[in-house]
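Cross-posted from the bioinformatics board.
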Amino acid sequence: MAFELTGYRGDALKVLKEAHATIGDYIRVIVNGNIYEGILIPRTEYADDKHILIKLKSGYNIGLRVSSGIRIEVIRHESKPTFTPPKLPEEKEGLPKIALISTGGTIASKVDYRTGAVEPALTASDLYGIIPELSEIANIKTEILFSEFSENLTPQHWKKLAITIANMLNEDLAGIVIAHGTDTMGYTAAALSFAIQDPPIPIVLVGSQRSSDRPSSDAASNLIGAALVASKAPFAEVVVVMHDGLSDEILAVHRGTKVRKCHTSRRDAFKSININPLAYVVLNEGKIELWSQEFKPRNSSKKPIIKPDFYEKVTLLKFYPGMDSKIIDWFVEQGYKGIILEGTGLGHVGKYLLNSLKKAIDSGVFVGMTSQCIWGSVNMNVYNTGRDLQAIGVIPLSDMLPETALVKLMWVLAQSKDLDKVKQAMLSNIAGEFSLKRF
Amino acid sequence: MAFELTGYRGDALKVLKEAHATIGDYIRVIVNGNIYEGILIPRTEYADDKHILIKLKSGYNIGLRVSSGIRIEVIRHESKPTFTPPKLPEEKEGLPKIALISTGGTIASKVDYRTGAVEPALTASDLYGIIPELSEIANIKTEILFSEFSENLTPQHWKKLAITIANMLNEDLAGIVIAHGTDTMGYTAAALSFAIQDPPIPIVLVGSQRSSDRPSSDAASNLIGAALVASKAPFAEVVVVMHDGLSDEILAVHRGTKVRKCHTSRRDAFKSININPLAYVVLNEGKIELWSQEFKPRNSSKKPIIKPDFYEKVTLLKFYPGMDSKIIDWFVEQGYKGIILEGTGLGHVGKYLLNSLKKAIDSGVFVGMTSQCIWGSVNMNVYNTGRDLQAIGVIPLSDMLPETALVKLMWVLAQSKDLDKVKQAMLSNIAGEFSLKRF
């Protein structure tokens, strides 16, 4: 068979041959006292000769180093190689129906082995095809909306995505999964949280930190977890589902307004800030464990509020020592209607910015304060700096994430430019953007 | 003892008690066939009751879920906390001499009980007076340089501070302590790390999160710890000394270029990013425990390099979806010579910024890339976006913190405006701003 042990050579090839294993077999590997079971998958042309690559039941790929004591057993021979072109499985009766919207990103990409770079490539149905476990969870309708790395998505994309989702809410779906690049997934999650309020079903964003054709890809496990949440979670909110830590089996479910990418490359990069994750997914048990009782419940008769517009003349300014106050003047001159400051500590900026901030506010610009600390809440009553900033009209935004505050202000200003209404909306807890305990 | 298992409850508390573990112990946890070893660290008041939190040797904290088969063993008990002020020889003649420079901030402030606000008030000698323990550690010379909250400090203040310190290096001092507001202490620490290279003695920044006349102030413990480090640490670097966690007795010593304020209000707000702290101070034993062997040693005969200037036409831009490329054009028009981008993920910005960035670089502006993820390293070879940005001349800055990159670029541009020299300097590891392991 052509794909018998594709890509394997040296020691790795030797031990696999001795075990009579071929690509696609379900094998057991015992090495250094640990036991791993999964499907033997092929290696790429760049592979070394010391590792065996298997896909665990959780969908996670791991590379196992061949050492002297390694033992390999074939548990189940597969009759066909895993290289079969993906086919959409037939609908199974009794399973919930979900939609999978592809926007691009690593989860929908493959490695270009010529340049070594990752390019957006896989379609939603490709993804579905290469992760057959999905067909046991739900009947999945797929749609390719964009094919962009998420750093290229703008508020215009958020709008299109929100409208696409809103239309799907009229269909009989158990949930919606959105495959998305991880770079700005937190921003999009916040945007959808405001654009689609009180949805009847879960809206689940999912990405991956390593592309699906690479060893140790988290694409399959994350998609399986997202499909589980979309199919049967009791909550109906906009959430992000990604790996929680070092365990292959546990994913965290983060509320869309409280989540942030906090590592450039780890698969557990996404963190809920100032709150616990809403739930965890235990992959090997197909189970969703709730971590909070405060959520909006799934209810198919709910009528969501759809407001998909975002006003783009809003900026996020991270303060730094010596920042030139003319930057603020420039935004006002350009017709910006909102500024989110990422101040220091409890919500401060240098006193040399006060005059420009006052001018901005007096001319009708909303200025809100968040903290570059990321964790904790602003409190502008403790120090004189904070009191002075409040006196000129800067609005403290409690523990709202800077990124969420930016997105929310874009959304609020699309509803109204009236400063009083904007203030009121910015201080209302619309989509869990404030942690109730700390507000 | 009050802080024995701070923050733990429910199942997590139960299994830790059964293992006779306390906060700070080096423990082994075996769960789901995986083995983890690290220091048991306290949980916050908002923690759930199902996870045990340990700090791995890598410096990364992980939460381990308590499941039925979990096994916990204490490998090494840590010394038990009791708040005894450090005991030192009665003869003050034999004590080292250190300087305490006050710049303002909470550590040098008191509450205005009329308004409830905190104001800068205490002088360096006041501080010395209200913390008698200091007199047992060192003979201390005090100087008030500024009386400003740190959000008001600018690169001009960094210069004055660097010159003041440089002059003191000619005196016979064991170390220098700088009392500083916490808001921008990370920025100042980075600035001093570049301005004073290879100092003969430790230069220790210290602040507090609660003012010294308040109950639960961390001002005294932090100052005592800073004085200990200044007096007898084996390393001679610019460092930040602040509480490490919920234990009253343990302070962390962070390298000046790798530290960041990561919480608005907690006393353990400061974190070393991508590396371990350089050392810990065990207050009740008056001891400094090294956590790294890679440091510049104390050596009174060393001649430091003093370069106290900073060029201010440098900006830090945090990218967000839809960011207007005209912002970049404006900085170029204003004569800015450097831009540090805080991009997404591995170091990306939207493709709609490419033209303006190219124009900026072509006109001689240095553009460097860091990540708003905070943790991890940029890697602009993985995705096409990163490769495109490199092709127009954007320089990836590995795992340098965005704030440190800004300060470093201000410092580098004060030495030379030649773009090649600037690039070379930005990519050199001058003061530990790159983690060697990851570079």
